[in-house]
Specification:
The structure is a single chain. Helices cover 65% and strands 4% of the residues. It has one domain: Up-down Bundle (Rhopdopsin 7-helix transmembrane proteins). By secondary structure, the chain is mainly α. It is built from 13 helices and four strands. Helix 3 runs antiparallel to helix 5, helix 9 packs antiparallel against helix 10 and helix 10 runs antiparallel to helix 11.
Length: 312
């Protein structure tokens, strides 16, 4: 038997020495814990019926408003493309988990799981872009019209496709550790960026006892984003480094699906949040002298963009 760890499911393939041995589906191997698989299937079909139209609407909205878009929209657009393709796989995944024992279809699934594994890299780019806008607005303004964001997108896609291809092969020893390292690093980076933004927005201007109303709205939105990041990515971050402390059956049929179920539902939560958020219109900060201090007014947070779009 060879155990192959993949992003949103676990494929266990028997390679019997004779034809009399019956191969089992993943569902048959996890019959002692069927409620976990049912929970996982519910989340995946939410992605199918909610995630696809939500991500398509995000793509349409960004295309329609491309003349008035934020600097992060290039990362949001590519993240929506990635999530749209990932949301197409639940029917094939359901068939393979429940009924099929063939190898061929799993190569396709493992490739898509590898693509989804890399989605935190695009989220990290979004967080970094907003971190620079809030904490280093002048530098952000100078780099605003550069092509470095397109270069970042190209690099992330290169890493994503190489990682997905390697995962598709399925026989690289200890390959699952690459995901553990990546998700830990991306999670820590995203939390750092959002906590820094919250700290900056929380600072009141001179002579003010309360936060500026627009800054307060931005603070609440970033706080929601941070909560969603923790909700989606904390389970795999908290559980996968301790894989060796669980029995094989518990990890393969319980922990694995719980952790990746929460991570995969981000394909629906992220576009819904983007569609539901409001653009925070704030005054322009034309020069460095317009800002009495870096965090004293909301215009410094947008770094001369004229608006601050806060979304995942």
């Amino acid at each position: 038997m060879r155990a192959l760890f993949i992003n949103s499911t676990l494929l266990l393939i028997h390679r019997p020495g004779n034809a009399s041995v019956v191969e089992l589906t993943v569902f048959e191997r996890c019959t002692a814990m069927p409620e976990v698989l049912l929970f996982y299937f519910c989340l995946q079909f939410i992605n199918l019926f909610l995630g696809i139209p939500a991500n398509v609407m995000v793509l349409w909205l960004i295309h329609r408003t491309k003349g008035d878009s934020s600097t992060s929209d290039i990362f949001i657009l590519h993240l929506a493309v990635l999530d749209t393709f990932f949301c197409l796989i639940p029917p094939l995944e359901f068939a393979n988990l429940m009924y099929l024992t063939v190898d061929s279809t799993w190569y396709v699934l493992r490739f898509f799981y590898g693509v989804k594994d890399s989605s935190p890299l695009f989220l990290s780019c979004i967080c970094m872009d907003r971190y620079m806008a809030v904490r280093h607005p002048i530098l952000f303004t100078e780099l605003k019209d550069r092509k470095h964001r397109s270069v970042c997108v190209a690099v992330v896609w290169l890493i994503t496709l190489v990682y997905a291809a390697a995962k598709c092969v399925g026989n690289i020893p200890n390959f699952e550790k690459a995901f553990t390292v990546m998700i830990l690093a991306a999670f820590a980076f995203m939390v750092f960026c959002n906590m820094s933004i919250l700290w900056a927005l929380r600072q009141s201007g001179p002579g003010r006892d309360e936060m500026h109303p627009v800054k307060k709205r931005a603070f609440k939105m970033v706080l929601i984003i941070l909560a969603i990041i923790v909700f989606n990515y904390f389970p795999p971050v908290a559980l996968f480094p301790f894989q060796e402390y669980f029995t094989d059956d518990v990890f393969k049929c319980y922990i694995h699906y719980i952790a990746f179920g929460f991570m995969d539902i981000s394909s629906s939560i992220q576009p819904v949040l983007y569609l539901s958020k409001e653009k925070l219109i704030i005054p322009s900060c034309r020069t460095k002298d317009d800002c009495c201090s870096r965090y004293s007014c909301c215009s410094c947070c947008c770094a001369v963009t004229g608006e601050m779009q806060v979304s995942t």
